Amino acid sequence: MVPTELEQHVAQLHPASFAWALACTRWNPAEAEEVLQSAYLRVLEGRARFAGRSSFRTWLFSVVRNVAVDRRRRQWLEELSPWKTPNRSRADAAVTGPHEALESAQRGAQVRRALSALGSRQREVLELVFFHEMTVEEAATVMGVALGTARAHYHRGKLHLMALLDSEDLR
Amino acid sequence: MNPDEGDQRIRAALAEAHRSDGARMPSFKQVWTVAKQTGRSRSSARVWLLTSASLTAAIGLAAWLIAQLGPPAAEFPRGTHWTGPTDFLLRTPGLVTLRTVPEFGSASSSPLLHPPVDARRGTP
């Protein structure tokens, strides 16, 4: 793919990619931006290359997810190490500001809280299917799991989220 | 609640969760430019690293070659024992006798050298 063409494709998908990055980072905008930057860097450097085996969106979303997973793993290792550095973009730090405190009173924050309570794979499959309008098969490709696994997470996630929404009293 | 209603509810909830995404979203240009700059600085760092590594390897190789091509190291005798080329001239007969030291303790106790007083006197 020609670089300018690649840039155009990525630019078109930027809002959706950001929404997906947010979901992958438990709605931490600073972290989502960093994830997106790293994902674009992988694309630019050719470390992630579109081979045409799936749609461009599915491929880009899987790159974003892989970056987010790598980042989470690195954070986890940093927390274990005795030389840990203060992390400026933690998920819990993102909801402590006055703006976020106000927002947390709103309905969107309640839904995000309910979604955050789900397992990461359940949240991911629901996000991809219900927000990004993907099929479960495409979601499985993005998540790098077998179709059967994705289906199981989809059904369990739906039930779990409904129960959580009921408990949050969001009807 | 039928399954479609459940799906609708989840769809609405997710749309609600993403309602404020637009306000938080950085522009594409901004993210893309930062990624590009990071890529450039990384590649220049990689070039620098590669150059310095190859330079170090070349210097090491040159030093090794010089060490290999230089004069052979002189062979010195091991330890403190050194045998001169004319030492054989000093080997004379009786050298073993000259170099041995008599043991006084053992000689004094020898009955042949110092027989008992009674034995020397003889018997009348």
Concise structural overview:
With 171 residues, chain A is mostly helical. Chain A has 9 helices and no strands. The interface between A and B is medium-sized, with 36 and 28 residues.
β-sheet strand percentage of chain A:
under 5%
Biggest sheet architecture of chain B: none
Q: How much is the average pLDDT of chain A?
A: 84
Using only CA atoms, what is the Rg of chain A? Answer: 17 Å
Count the beta strands of chain A. Answer: 0
**What is the H/E string of chain B?**
HHHHHH
SS content category of chain B: mainly alpha
Please tell me the overall pLDDT of chain B: 78
Number of helices of chain A: 9
Backbone structural class of chain A: mainly alpha
Description:
The complex is a heterodimer of chains A (171) and B (124). Chain A is mainly α. Chain A is built from 9 helices and no strands. In chain A, α2 packs across α3, α3 crosses α4 and α7 packs across α8. The longest helix of chain A has 25 residues. Chain A is globular. Chain A starts with a helix and ends with a helix. Chain B is mostly helical and 124 residues long. Chain B has a domain of 64 residues. Chain B is 61% helix and 0% strand. At the A-B interface, α1, α2, α3, α6 and α7 of A face α1, α2 and α3 of B.
Task: Give me some keywords for this one.
heterodimer, A: 171 residues, mainly alpha, globular, B: mainly alpha, 6 helices
Ordered list of secondary-structure elements with their pairings:
The complex is a heterodimer of chains A (171) and B (124).
Chain A: H1 3-12, H2 14-24, H3 29-45, H4 56-80, H5 98-104, H6 107-116, H7 120-131, H8 136-143, H9 147-167
Chain B: H1 3-17, H2 21-24, H3 28-69, H4 95-99, H5 104-108, H6 117-121
